[in-house]
Design goal:
Shape: globular
Pfam families: Acetate_kinase (PF00871)
Keywords: ATP-binding, Cytoplasm, Kinase, Magnesium, Metal-binding, Nucleotide-binding, Transferase
Strand order of the largest sheet: 5-4-3-2-1-6-8-7
Number of helices: 15
Largest sheet: 8 strands, mixed
CATH architecture of the largest domain: 2-Layer Sandwich
Structural class: alpha/beta
Pathway: Metabolic intermediate biosynthesis; acetyl-CoA biosynthesis; acetyl-CoA from acetate: step 1/2
Distance between the termini: 19 Å
Helix content: 25-40%
Strand content: 15-25%
Family: Belongs to the acetokinase family.
Radius of gyration: 21 Å
Subcellular location: Cytoplasm
Number of strands: 14
């Protein structure tokens, strides 16, 4: 089976063509600057890349271009669109309505539209991608895979906010969590690496421009750091993470900002960028720290400290830990962040091996010392595979 995987954003879309049974990826790519001018970056499995500057007034033209590129010219990897068996869509917010991936139907789209207030930037683009694919590839099954679904196993005492209860019953205000496909994939890989499917206590640190931590007990999420929206939790590339409501109110008063302006600051001008004043890219900030920039040093130490706090909290929530996992661009590539996070966690059974930690590899690996009672894994995530595999199982009738 060939699955066309689509992740539609507000002005961009990522795609991949994959056989989920063999895990073979035929092509992957990105459309950027949709509605502005348009750039398609298409990549083959052998690393060969193709870049096309083509006008993309809307997402429809972008998806049309991607499908054409897959079957024609330099980007060709299949003979016909008919070779595509199904489409799997990344869907950001499923609220409480979707605890698993589902076949896209008019009712599903209608429900997702009702959830737009919870994800005003993401859900409209996700829905648009689904409707366009249904239009361009009539008869092809479409499956929605939700970022929030994996976290729907959290108990109520973990996901509720201590606000008046009617704010939950009337508006659905609670913690939902995100990066669910990554947390599911990595925790499942960790269970395999532990060779232990039962009684597993796993903490996953998905660290990138957006970051989150989850506590996974026996394959089920029991807590996660992101909340109603992705701005809660860890300090991220441009997101503030956990900030007291009083500090937000005080900043608004002192700066004379509206709520929209404040949210813009918290989502786009805070985090690593806001503290360092240099960049949202941790690589540049790490270099700045090495060059003696004290604000870069502060940003790096804050990032690591915030992660460590959540790790400690989740060891308590899980009543111990069998494996601590690092994934995402930062988690997989920054040995220094892993080192700082793990420093001092010996009492929790987490002992990092400096030599193993500093070795680079694109494969899953254990970087704990041989004597460590808990394992420390670096596991490359594969959210696209989760989307493709869920699509395959639902379309094939394997998932009821």
């Amino acid at each position: 089976m060939l699955v066309f995987i689509l992740n539609a954003g507000s002005s961009s879309l990522k795609y991949q063509l994959m056989n989920p049974v063999s895990k073979e990826v035929l092509a992957t790519g990105l459309c950027e600057r949709i509605g502005i001018d348009g750039v398609l970056k298409h990549e083959f499995t052998d690393g060969k890349k193709l870049t096309l500057d083509v006008s993309m007034p809307t997402h429809k033209e972008a998806i049309e271009l991607v499908l054409k590129t897959l079957v024609e010219g330099e980007g060709k990897v299949i003979n016909s669109i008919d070779n595509i068996d199904a489409v799997g869509h990344r869907a950001v917010h499923g609220g409480e309505e979707f605890a698993s991936s589902v076949m896209v139907t008019p009712k599903v789209i209608e429900t997702m539209k009702k959830l737009i207030p919870l994800a005003p930037l993401h859900n409209p683009a996700n829905i648009m991608g689904m409707e366009i694919c249904q239009d361009l590839m009539p008869g092809k099954p479409n499956v929605a895979v939700f970022d929030t679904a994996f976290h729907q196993t959290m108990p109520d005492y973990a996901y509720m906010y201590a606000l008046p209860y009617d704010q939950y019953t009337k508006h659905g205000i609670r913690k939902y969590g995100f990066h669910g496909t990554s947390h599911f994939f990595v925790s499942n890989e960790a269970r395999g690496m532990l060779d232990k499917k039962h009684n597993t206590r796993i903490i996953v640190c998905h660290l990138g421009n957006g970051s989150s931590v989850s506590a996974v007990l026996n394959g089920k999420c029991i807590d996660t750091s992101m909340g109603l929206t992705p701005v809660q939790g860890l300090m991220m590339g441009t997101r503030a993470g956990d900030v007291g409501a009083g500090a937000i109110s005080y900043m608004m008063t002192q700066e004379g900002m509206t709520i929209d302006q404040t949210l813009d600051v918290m989502n786009k001008k805070s985090g690593i960028l806001g503290i360092s004043g240099k960049s949202s890219d941790l690589r540049e900030v790490l270099q700045g720290m090495q060059d003696g920039d004290d604000r870069c040093r502060l940003a790096v130490e804050m990032v690591a400290y915030n992660i460590k706090k959540y790790v400690g909290a989740y060891v308590a929530a899980l009543d111990g830990v069998d494996a601590l996992c690092f994934t995402g661009g930062i988690g997989e590539n920054s040995s220094l962040i892993r080192e700082i996070v793990c420093a001092g966690l010996d009492g929790m059974g987490l002992n990092i091996d400096p030599t193993k930690n500093n070795k680079r590899s694109g494969k899953p690996r254990d970087i704990a010392t041989n004597s460590s009672t808990a394992r420390i894994f670096v596991i490359p995530t594969n959210e696209e595979y989760v989307i493709a595999n869920d699509t395959y199982k639902i379309v094939s009738g394997l998932e009821k």
